[in-house]
Design brief:
Number of helices: 12
Largest sheet: 6 strands, parallel
CATH architecture of the largest domain: 3-Layer(aba) Sandwich
Strand content: 5-15%
CATH class of the largest domain: Alpha Beta
Structural class: alpha/beta
Number of strands: 12
Radius of gyration: 28 Å
Number of domains: 3
Length: 350
């Protein structure tokens, strides 16, 4: 590997002069700088970026902590963040934490040790991030809760509005028995979606039923298992709202096993608008989440913090991004089945 000392020997100059010339130090004449750059290029020299960043106390790198970047939604967030960072001249390093608080703390410490210029935390755990401000790293949260007293920037999908919109959509289809299969209870997004669901029921004077609210783990199997419980109960729902598309697909499988037609006998509503929602049969009605835009907003917010050294006006900010209902084939107007009165029996003994 070609070093500064090799270039200095070829140019007949000191290593210090070559180093300053490669850094475009104005104290070195333009002619000398151009000559040294030309020699370096001819010799195939590549600068040691880590060493340069250490000297400049800047890495030009941002750390992204996410649950699992291979997940479709996490991947869209990462793409949005990367796009925004590229526009500001930053690169991105990703650490997956798999919803584990120990992994998360390790990632925060790692990025601090690497002298990253900032960190974006994209995860939905309710764990308070009291240790993040202690690193003195600028940071932005995506779909997170934080109990830190310092001003913070949070970019969130509006999960309250999403839960509300999904439930009200089903209510407008004349459903009154609407079950909700939510995500894990300790996820911030689960709490907000449940609050939206509850609010929509209350607005339309529909009773909140604890037996209609279940908590799954975001995977199809939990949606399938919990839907079987609902459909086999004494008073089954006419519609099921699942807090993500994967569990909603499990619900449609359970309906099929119970001999129920979707949407003729039961409507099913998802959440996320993953790619699979468009190709499932029947195609899944759902709430879209603009995750790429969320990532872009978080990336721009962090770059602004790094450039100015503070949040806008020195205050915390919370940016909410609202999804929208995507109507497909798993929901329909509820038509109450007519009750047929039994024919009176004739008493032939009279």
């Amino acid at each position: 590997m070609v070093s500064i000392y090799d270039i200095a020997k070829a140019a007949g100059m000191s290593a210090a002069t070559v180093s300053r010339a490669l850094a475009d130090n104005p104290k070195i004449s333009r002619a000398s700088r151009e000559r040294i750059h030309r020699i370096a290029e001819e010799m195939g020299y590549r600068p040691n970026l880590l060493a340069r960043n250490f000297r400049q106390k800047s890495s030009s790198m941002i750390g992204l902590i996410t649950d699992d970047v291979s997940d479709e939604l996490s991947g869209m967030i990462a793409k949005g963040v990367e796009q925004a960072l590229r526009e500001h001249g930053f690169t991105m390093l990703v650490r997956n934490v798999h919803h584990d608080s120990d992994n998360e703390q390790e990632a925060i410490d790692y990025f601090a040790d690497m002298q990253m210029d900032g960190v974006i935390l994209a995860d939905s755990t309710l764990d308070a991030l009291a240790d993040v401000p202690m690193t003195k790293l600028p940071f932005v949260l995506i779909n997170r809760y934080c109990s830190a007293e310092e001003p913070i920037s949070i970019v969130c999908t509006d999960d309250f509005a999403g839960g509300y919109d999904a439930t009200e959509y089903l209510i407008k289809l004349n459903h009154r028995k609407i079950a909700f299969i939510n995500g894990p209870e300790d996820w911030y997004s689960s709490i907000r979606r449940l609050t939206g669901y509850t609010e929509a029921l209350g607005k339309h004077d529909i009773e909140y039923r604890t037996d209609y609210v279940k908590h799954g783990d975001w995977f199809e199997d939990s949606g399938y298992r919990l839907a079987l419980e609902l459909f086999r109960s004494e008073d089954p729902p006419t519609a099921v709202f699942a807090a993500n598309d994967m569990m909603a697909i499990g619900v449609t499988d359970a309906a099929r096993e119970c001999g129920l037609r979707v949407p003729e006998d039961v409507s099913v509503m998802g959440y996320d608008d993953r790619t699979i929602a468009k190709y499932a049969r029947p195609r899944l009605t759902t709430i879209s989440l603009p995750m790429f835009e969320v990532g872009m907003m978080a990336g721009h917010a962090l770059c602004e913090m790094i450039a100015t050294g503070q949040l806008p006006d020195g205050k915390s900010e919370r940016l909410l991004v609202r999804g929208q209902v995507i109507e497909r084939d798993t929901t329909s107007q509820y038509m109450a089945k007519p009750t047929i009165a039994p024919e009176p029996t004739q008493d032939f003994n009279k």
